[in-house]
Amino acid sequence: MKQAQRVVLIAHVSPDGDTLGSALALRLALLAVGAVADVVCQDAVPELYATLPGAGTVVPPEKVAGRVYDLAVAVDVSDALRMGDCSPVFEAARSRMVVDHHGTNTRFGEENWVDPDASATGVLVLQLVRALGAELTPEIARCLFVALSTDTGHFQYQNTNAQALRAAADCVEARIDVAQITEGLYRERPRAKTELLACALRSLTFERGGRLAYMKLSRADFERCGASDAMSEGLINYAIETQGVKVAFLARENDAGVKFSLRSRPPYDVAAVCKRFGGGGHVFAAGCTIAAPLDEAIPAMLAAIDVG
């Protein structure tokens, strides 16, 4: 990475705080040491992350078509399909690297730094920033803190460990405004997202004696609320945080079929469930897409989940 003069950083489809925060932090670090760095993503930056330093520089892959990069880095991307339309950009680079923390990562790069013990890819990118010799500026620290916070549920999920908390402390020492960041991420939401939450909660269904819970959102629900798909991020927590629930999922319609977000409590492995449908993720947080309408996809998912 130190030798590369032109680097492209690829965020995964339906970008979240970890992929965007990590990619934008790494971009700033590379620029600081004299490299040219671009961040590309198939999908637009969600409004929730639009104020991240450099968020306005994220471009779709067609904007860099024809450019040849010394190095392409897939950031927080568990498999090549998660790059979406950015795959040709990745493949065209002279060297290809994967930096990720998903246990289901398929190691699709020439170099693969995959650490499932890391709470977020942001933990790994902080190490890269230091290895590059770049200063941990407030701008880089803000990006990394968002990466850490969003992938650990603001340091509440079971994947939160000492390494993540030390990384967060380093970001705080770099003079970020934690209260401001937290306000934007967790204490303010567009009205459309609140209406989408209400719609999801109206669909909340309990199965298996209350050990399994799920919610569903149709395309009509999104249209009626004036909400984007990105606004569904975090809604699944309302199901898994219900007392007695061991496994929960949110099913939402999109052009490819039905996208599922799953969460669980020990010892239930939802990554294994999602792998059956071509998806993946972490043991207690995973996702997949089933190419079928809601009324067919949900029974298929219910049949795949065993909560005793």
UniProtKB/TrEMBL annotation:
Annotated organism of origin: Candidatus Onthenecus intestinigallinarum
Start and end residues of each DHHA1 domain: 226-306
PANTHER family from the UniProt entry: BIFUNCTIONAL OLIGORIBONUCLEASE AND PAP PHOSPHATASE NRNA
Domain DDH: 6-147
Pfam families named among the record's database cross-references: DHH (PF01368), DHHA1 (PF02272)
Single Gene Ontology MF annotation: nucleic acid binding
Domain of life of the source: Bacteria
Protein name: DHH family phosphoesterase
